[in-house]
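Appendix C: a fully annotated inverse folding record. The material below is reproduced so that readers can follow the format used throughout the book. The structure is listed first as tokens, followed by the designed sequence.
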């Protein structure tokens, strides 16, 4: 658990791929990741649910158990909004995630009141204490993602929420859709000393520039899962069209012994 926290220290730049099940997590670990996060969207899709607090939390708990069984690096779990509009119940859900092996969580405010988000952060920290884990709580601010204010007010509102969430006890701030360099700099300054997490999107500055700007964590979000889904659809469509085995096998380029990844 302290290992994961140390990856966010000043001067660090954590690149955090997001998995959706034990298999994807183990492949990501074998690719050289120092830590893994789950993507709430990707986990939900893999289990046949839409994103958006629809996944039953007990299914996420089982997914965490499956992932932590096969990896040896820290796991942070996207808990969406804690799967409840009641802070106490969200805390109970997060306690189950921590007991299953999570050492960090994301929790998001979405369109909810910042007051409720603060209560959820406090409940999450208490859950970590109850489990004996110094839980890293990453507070996701959705002002930009959900366009909760006019564009010219978005950074001001983001920073106002970040200050409240810091006072509630969060350990990091996550701002999806934060892509403009001057706005990234403003948020980094405004939340100091907390680390800023940004999310992989098509128009994000390169990692070297993010690091220069002071970002300390870059998450893949659902992008890896989306790429896998896109390729799956393409290959299935082509295979169904003409049954061309060679066309499928042109994409089987990784020679990894997959079974060996799971032999412990």
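Designed amino acids, in order:
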């Amino acid at each position: 658990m302290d290992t994961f926290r140390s990856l966010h220290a000043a001067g660090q730049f954590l690149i955090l791929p997001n998995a959706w099940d034990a298999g994807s997590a183990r492949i990501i670990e074998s690719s050289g990741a120092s830590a893994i996060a789950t993507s709430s969207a990707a986990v939900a899709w893999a289990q046949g649910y839409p994103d958006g607090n629809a996944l039953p939390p007990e299914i996420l708990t089982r997914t965490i158990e499956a992932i932590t069984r096969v990896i040896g690096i820290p796991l942070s779990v996207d808990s969406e909004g804690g799967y409840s509009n009641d802070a106490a119940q969200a805390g109970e859900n997060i306690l189950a995630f921590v007991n299953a092996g999570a050492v960090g969580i994301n929790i998001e405010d979405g369109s909810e009141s910042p007051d409720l988000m603060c209560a959820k952060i406090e409940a999450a920290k208490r859950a970590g204490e109850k489990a004996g884990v110094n839980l890293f709580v990453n507070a996701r601010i959705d002002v930009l993602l959900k366009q909760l204010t006019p564009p010219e007010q978005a950074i001001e509102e983001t920073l106002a929420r970040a200050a409240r969430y810091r006072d509630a006890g969060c350990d990091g701030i996550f701002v999806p859709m934060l892509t403009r360099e001057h706005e990234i700099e403003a948020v980094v300054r405004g939340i100091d000393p907390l680390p800023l997490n940004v999310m992989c999107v098509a128009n994000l500055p390169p990692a070297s520039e993010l690091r220069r700007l002071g970002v300390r964590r870059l998450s893949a979000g659902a992008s890896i899962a989306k790429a896998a889904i896109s390729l799956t659809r393409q290959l299935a469509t082509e295979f169904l069209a003409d049954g061309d085995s060679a066309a499928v096998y042109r994409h089987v380029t990784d020679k990894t012994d997959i079974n060996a990844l799971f032999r412990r």
